[in-house]
Amino acid sequence: MPNDTRRKKRIFRRMRQFAAFGIATALMILVGGFHRIAAVGPTGQDTTTQPTEIPPGKPVANDLKYVGVGGCSAAACHGGPITSNPARLWNCSYTIWASQEPLALPENRALRAADHAPLLDKHNRAYAVLFDDRSKQIVKLLNHGGDGPPPHRDERCIACHSVPHDPATVPTSILADGVGCELCHGPAKNWLAKHTENDWVNAYHSGKYDLLKDMADTRNLLTRAQMCAGCHVGSPGDKEKDQLVRDVNHDLIAAGHPRLDFEFHAYLALMPKHWEDSAPSPGEAPIRAGFKTDRETHAEAWAIGQVVAAEAALRLLVHRAGGDEKNSKRPWPEFSEFDCYACHHQLDSKFPSARQQSAEQRAGERRLGSLPWGTWYFPEVQLLIESEPFGKWYEEYGPALAELKKQMDKPGAALERKTIQESAAKAAGAMHRLAEEIKDKTFDAKTVDRMLLRAADERFAPSDWDEAAQRLLTLAALWDARQFFQSQAGAAPSEDEEAISEALKRIREKLQFRSAPPQSAEPAESRQPHVDYDSPVRFDPEAVRTELFQPAFARIHKLLSAKEAK
Amino acid sequence: MKPRTLRIKQYAAALVAATALGAAIGLAERALSADASPIAERRGGEMPEPKYMGSESCKLCHSKPDNASPGALATLDEFTTWDGHDKHRAAFDALSCPRAVQMERLLGWKPGEAAMNRQCLACHAIDVTKDSAGDTLHDEASRHEAVAKGVSCEACHGAASNWIDPHWKIGGWRKLTPDDKSAKKYGLTNLHDPVRRTELCLSCHLGDIAAGKFVTHDMFAAGHPPLPAFEVETFLEQMPPHWRKMPPHSRTRSVAVEGLVALRASIQMLLPPPEAHDAAAPADFAIYDCTACHHELQRPSPRQERGYFGGTPGRPALRFWDTPLATAALALQAAQGDKIAPSPIYAAMARLQTAAGTRPFGDEQAVRTAAREAIDQLNKAISDLPNAPTDRKESRNLIERLCRAGAEAPLDYELAWQLTGALRAVASDWEHVNAGELHAPVESKMKASIEELSRLVDFPAAPDPAADRPTPCHGTLWSNGTDFNPEGFRKKLEEIVAGFRDR
Q1: Burial annotation B390-414 (CB, 10 A radius, 16+ → b, else e)
Q2: What is the pLDDT of residues A165-176, one digit of tens each?
Q3: Best B290, B312, B413 residue to mutate vs chain A (most A CBs within 10 Å)
Q4: CA A53 remoteness from chain centre
Q5: Do residues B348 and B377 make contact, with C-beta atoms less than 8 angstroms apart?
Q6: Is the N end or the C end of chain A the one with fewer CB atoms within 10 Å?
Q7: Please, are residues A175 and A149 in contact by the beta-carbon 8 Å criterion?
Q8: Is the Cβ pair B298, A348 closer than 8 Å?
Q9: Does the pLDDT at position B341 exceed 60?
Q10: ipTM tops 0.90
């Protein structure tokens, strides 16, 4: 019936706008960490540095199996024109990655999740940013002003900004690709030719990756999340495979590198997707049978992402704690393990102080004046394992984390490498098992609602910005998931639902870092010039709790409980 | 404006009060009696353990009404000034303010414990215990009363049991040198000595771990206000004076001395405390530069532009606000053709910075070795400091050195605030003896520039010495410099230096 179709279309259009919001929330909150890379502007190539090929006789790391993006980018392969046909997206995946201009392609279904704002895949510029002033400053400060290779030849940078191998053993042409295709999909030498053949295509679509040497199963959320976390959280590297350590430690951050704040679901939303991402609209056939798109797996992506990030953070902690006193490459205590803003806030002599009042409310949770550990990676894992749908998880996976937390709650100089290393390894093992358990779980509409109710816990009292931001990202992911199920059911968003979207948006706006100096009556020329804050200046936990989260929680409860009652 | 002469007279009167009275009585006694003077007995002998007598003992003589005898050599209103106007009097009362109550809760102390805890009393009162009390404080009640007076007379002048009688009863007191009065014989602290005076202020306003005076990081985290950068002349100016006006150019001398003494005190905190005191673990965060960690993260980042003194970014950093003043003081010595070569201090400081930056909390052994070296060098430089007041030329030179050291230093709010205080003090010396010349363009321009610097750091106005002392429970105590612009400040410093050059 034409009428019915029109109605469906209308509803769908609304849903689209609506779902876009949740992702937008996730997206914008991370602006603090992520937009910086975009902000560097077009890179002036450093003409003083001659391109260097591998010196003759120098061993090539791990018999390098990379071919470079040039192997993928032919117009008939992955470098074709950007298309709106989801079935042909594979043909323009390189093009989307390589675009130097943010892409806003509302007709492209793969991109419609973010059709409110153009997106740029910054991975293609990962190498180029190493030539800008900030990168030079970072390396200069890390080298104490002394000599050292430039950023684009410095292992500490290259490990994430290009292939994770000794840059002296990698051809410049491959280094210069930045984070190219093979860094996620796997080194292509062994499968580049084969993957165009029918056998291969069949194996790919039936998920038989073991047939495909070195090719990564990026459609699997767990594999994908681990791939992202390798850089966006860090990794101890692998000596046997000549893989470099990837560690944005406090030295690097103090020298000017942005802090890391990885949250898988939000980061996915930030990427212009070069893969199939369309969920079937009501009545439509799925693009590929047996394959779930990101649109259908918001909640799963959130849960897997949280667990994977936690495991990666713990493995990195094992590595960090494993150095010795003389090893300046692994400074200890490693301050980036702790909440940035616990220390990094302007001192004042105000009384009463919001910070101290909050400490008082949470008396006993951690030692006064100590460094709060793991505020970014662990609160939501805690929520996940405590969540109603998975009651047993806490007993299984909680104690190892709790034990480590206790050991990390000591004044800086008293943190013991050995015991912490052991506990972190245990906790990482627990997270690994949890990831295995969770990887094939499907969260249905009912589970998502219960998780939402649990996340909207009225007792939630963020003690710092990290906790508040992570909870927002959780709510955004689960809200997106719920929106999807609603759209599947063909339900139009109610007033309550719109109000919840608005409330989440408000939280996002309030948590965003400021890009202007604090108020000042003084003439501009005698005061601080314009600055962008990487700090939640004057973050007030109590106000955030009562004025932002509580109203949103109340609405979520009203909406979902009413539904349950029905 | 209050007539300058009146203030001078007031100052002049104050500190000599005791001396004058002692002298008068001493003369009289000597005339009356041929008794063997206790002074003669003491000479060469060790004095008994000094005991606290309590400020009530001082009050007996020093409590005339304010300005009762402004022209007199001894005004004897010192107790009155301190009791009515000086914040030190309220130091103990602060221990029961809401802020202190919050600190008790957060530190897990019992209610009211702050007023009994030696960690607090070390700086908020005098340390009167059964063992350290003199015969005027024989019972618990009187001892408590003495503690409750806060930072009272003996906190600065020294426990009085050995000097309270001699300083008014005994002939020949006036003829004793300040060293004789203090040292091992009487224990009256020589506050005329800028080194001793500065050390004494710093022991609380910065910390002295060996003396159990140390605000730990836990205490700060629980709510103790931050200790702002110390500048001795600024802090003295904030006190209602109960002493006579110092001789001309003594403020210049004081600032030059302070540079070295404060740096020494700051480095001293890196050394482990003697066993007797458990004030702090060596690596308490509070021995490091507060603002190295405590600053908003921003871009452009002043912290990164400032650099890390050749150390690795991202580790707890040594305090640095005391370094430019020391640099200026050393440059001043060198410029005067002094024997002291400043280079060993710089070399030791560089070693210290390296050792401290090798890893978080530093390489302990290397830090201690370098700290001891630096202290040895500073001791030498301090003992070589001339004792005499300086002259106009030295004031002018110190202003220039301070501005240079500041302009070259990694400026932050603390340092800028401290430099401004130092510059104001030295400039007031200059102004004092050269009122006539002030109309010369260079001087008036410099004066205007220093006023501008003061505005940039929200420098506090000198308080009215006659005002009642503020209540002990403050809300916000000082500006935190959130809006401070280091580049604007640096430009002003450079302007002053250029002004000197143009001349």
Answers
A1: bebebbbbbbbbbbbbbbebbbbbb
A2: 999 989 999 999
A3: B312
A4: 33
A5: yes
A6: C
A7: no
A8: no
A9: no
A10: no
Given A359, A518, A533, which is nearest B483 (Cβ)?
A518
In order of A75, A173, A175, B398, the CA distances from A130 in angstroms are 29, 15, 11, 45
Q: Which residues in chain A touch residue B311, judged by CB atoms under 8 angstroms apart?
A: 144
**What is the band of A354 on the pLDDT scale with cuts at 50, 70, 90?**
confident
Closest of B145, B143, B183, B139 to residue B163, by C-alpha: B183
**CA distance to B103, B467, B470, B474, per residue, from B87 (Å):** 21, 11, 7, 12
The answer to whether the CB atoms of A347 and B298 lie below 8 A apart is no
Question: What would the 3-class secondary structure string for B211-254 be?
Answer: HCECCCHHHHHHCCCCCCCCCHHHHHHCCCCCCCCCCCCHHHHH
DSSP class of residue B502 equals: H
Contacts of A405 (CB under 8 A, 6+ apart): A373, A374, A378
**Contacts B99 to A, Cβ<8 Å:** 351
Name the residue in chain B with its Cα closest to that of A250: B314
Using a CB-CB cut-off of 8 Å, the residues of chain A touching B304 are 137, 141, 254-256
Pick from A335, A331, A337: nearest CA to A315: A337
Q: Left (φ > 0), alpha (ψ -120 to 50) or beta: where does A42 sit? A: beta
- What would the two tokens of residue B47 be? 């004095």
CA B316/CA A335 separation, integer angstroms = 10
Lookup: tokens for A430: 């627990």
Token pair recorded at residue B104: 């008790």
Residue in chain A nearest B281 by alpha carbon = A413
Distance CA B110, CA B107 (A): 9
Q: What's the CA gap between B34 and B37, in Å, rounded?
A: 8
Cβ-nearest to B488 among A145, A250, A526: A526
Residue pointed to by tokens 């996730």: A26
DSSP β-bridge partners for residue B298: A533
Cβ-in-10-Å burial (0-12, 13-18, 19+) of B111 comes to: exposed
Structural contact between residues B446 and B429, judged by C-beta atoms closer than 8 angstroms? no
Across B167-171, B335-339, B475-479, least confident range = B335-339
Beta carbons of A533 and B105 less than 8 Å apart: no
Q: Which of A19, A21, A23, A32 is nearest to A376 (CA)?
A: A32
Burial class (CB in 10 A: 0-12, 13-18, 19+), B303: buried
pLDDT at B336 (0 to 100): 60
For residue range A365-396, what is the model confidence (pLDDT) as tens digits?
A: 778 888 899 999 999 999 999 875 666 788 88
Check whether A110 has a pLDDT greater than 60.
no
DSSP alpha helix (H) spans, B108-193: 118-124, 140-148, 153-157, 166-169, 178-181
Counts for chain A of helices (H) and strands (E), in that order: 22, 1
Find which of B413, B482, B490, B491 to mutate to test the A interface (most A CBs within 10 Å of its CB): B482
Strand, helix or coil for residue A560: helix
Residues of chain A positioned with their CB less than 8 A from the CB of B225: 349, 351
The residue type of A311 is: E
DSSP per-residue string spanning A274-326: -S--PPPPTTPPPSSTT---GGG-HHHHHHHHHHHHHHHHHHHHHHHHTS-TT
CA A301 – CA A26 distance, rounded (Å): 13
**pTM confidence score:** 0.85
CA B414 to chain CA mean position, Å: 16
Whether residue B485 and residue A137 make contact (CB cut-off 8 A), yes or no, is no
The span from the CA of A267 to the CA of B325, in Å, is 49
For helices B17-32 and B55-62, the axis angle rounded to 10 degrees is 80
Peptide bond into B300 cis (omega under 30): yes
